[in-house]
Amino acid sequence: MNMPIVKVIEVIAGSEKSFDDATNNALIEASKSVRNIKSIYVNEMKAIVEDNKIVSYGVNAKISFELEEK
User: Fold this and answer.
1) Is 24 exposed, middle or buried (0-12, 13-18, 19+ CB in 10 A)?
2) Average pLDDT over residues 53-70
């Protein structure tokens, strides 16, 4: 029995709403060109502040997916 090969890509995504929304945006955009996504790991979060208010949320995330057998 062959074990599936898992590949990891790193993506950056943002949102004006929240870190959760930024993470979801990363997953939505990655899923447009990547199949068999199995997990997402957020390894960095960043917020942009203007006038003492957060105006933008950003995440740097790793997305894992299984490669298809040929």
Assistant:
1) middle
2) 94
> Residue 40 belongs to a domain with what CATH number?
3.30.1660.10
For residue 4, give the DSSP letter: P
**d(C-alpha 26, C-alpha 47), whole Å:** 16
Give the end-to-end CA distance of the chain in Å, rounded to a whole number.
15
* Residue whose entry in the numeric block shows the structure tokens 């943002």: 14
The count of domains in the chain is 1
| Cα–Cα distance measured from residue 68 to residue 40, given in angstroms and rounded to the nearest whole number | 18
pTM of the model: 0.88
* Residue given tokens 């298809």 in the structure block: 68
Quote the pLDDT of residue 3. 81
**Per-residue tokens: 45:** 């979060």
Does residue 1 fall inside a structural domain?
no
